[in-house]
Design brief:
This protein has 282 residues and is α/β, with parallel strands linked by helices. It folds into 2 domains: 211 residues, Rossmann fold (3-Layer(aba) Sandwich), CATH 3.40.50.1820; 59 residues, no CATH class. It is 37% helix and 21% strand. A 9-stranded mixed sheet has the order 1-2-4-3-5-6-7-8-9. The longest helix has 14 residues. About 4% of the residues have low confidence.
């Protein structure tokens, strides 16, 4: 489906979030919450591949243009409250999807309000990336966004210097990453300042967790995924074959099709507690 409108929603503290809506704006659909170092634009190809719902609303979280600033009181709680504003606006939404940090936000939101379905791709939780916080803070204080991107890619994501060099070779891509890196320290600090809850998504009728096959059981994303999974024991668990954390950029159509297949009207999730990941996409 194609993008039809963009909504701007005030979220308090002189900030706001924008939401890119694909499909029928007034129809019940899917709300998508991107994570750190990502924005709504990066999810456009996934959104256009989704057709199991008549609409897809992709949140552009605060801290990235054209949404508003983080503000001085920013915390993980801020993110959950912002998402609440979005869900109030799109009150007919049938499902909520979150990626990475956005997955954690989605699962926490489902602790506070009843939701029909929550889907999370490699959600992360404390103590994810805490070792990199001092270096991120130092780079942020000098507005050295080039270093922030390098720290995120190498020290947090665990990729090598060659990967950084390949991204830096494309000036447009690197500039976009530098812009998206500005809230990185605040977001990671907020994630780690919140004690991990004993359980998540307790008010969701159904929860589906997705892990990229390349990350299954592997630090940092696969092991953080396992930490989250322990706190949502009734969730269906699914694998996206051949992919890691950046499936929305590297295989957006395949990810979109997997999300389609998890719609409540589609195929069932793994039986709760069976413990075996499914390979839901070839």
């Amino acid at each position: 489906m194609e993008q039809t409108i963009q909504k701007k929603l005030p979220v308090g503290e002189d900030s706001w979030v924008t939401v890119d809506v694909y499909g029928e704006p007034e129809a019940p659909g899917l709300v998508v919450v991107p994570g750190a170092m990502s924005d709504a634009h990066a999810w456009r190809r996934v959104a256009t591949a989704i057709d199991a719902w008549p609409s897809v609303a992709v949140v552009n979280r605060r801290g990235r243009a054209p949404s508003g600033p983080l503000t001085s009181t920013y915390s993980l709680r801020t993110e959950v409250e912002d998402l609440g504003v979005v869900l109030d606006e799109f009150h007919r939404a049938k499902a909520l999807f979150g990626w990475s940090y956005g997955g954690l936000i989605a699962l926490l939101a489902a602790d506070e309000r009843p939701l029909r379905q929550v889907i999370a791709y490699e959600p992360v939780m404390a103590p994810f990336g805490s070792h990199a916080l001092p270096d991120l803070k130092s780079a942020e204080e000098t507005a050295d966004w080039d270093s922030v991107v390098s720290i995120v890619i190498q020290r947090i994501s665990g990729l090598d210097a060659a990967h950084v060099d390949a991204l830096r070779a494309d000036p447009q891509t690197w500039a976009a990453l530098c812009a998206l890196s500005r809230p990185a320290h605040a977001e990671l600090a907020a994630l780690n300042a919140t004690p991990p809850p004993d359980a998540m998504a307790r008010r969701a009728d159904r929860v589906d967790l997705i892990v990229g096959r390349l990350n299954h059981g592997t630090a940092p994303y696969g092991t953080s995924f396992d930490d989250v999974r322990e706190r949502v024991p009734r969730a269906g668990v699914h694998e996206l074959h051949g992919q890691g954390h950046m499936a929305h950029l590297q295989a957006p159509t395949e990810l979109g099709h997997l999300i389609n297949s998890l719609a409540v009207s589609g195929q069932p999730s793994s039986p709760p507690g069976d413990g075996a990941p499914r390979r839901d996409a070839p």
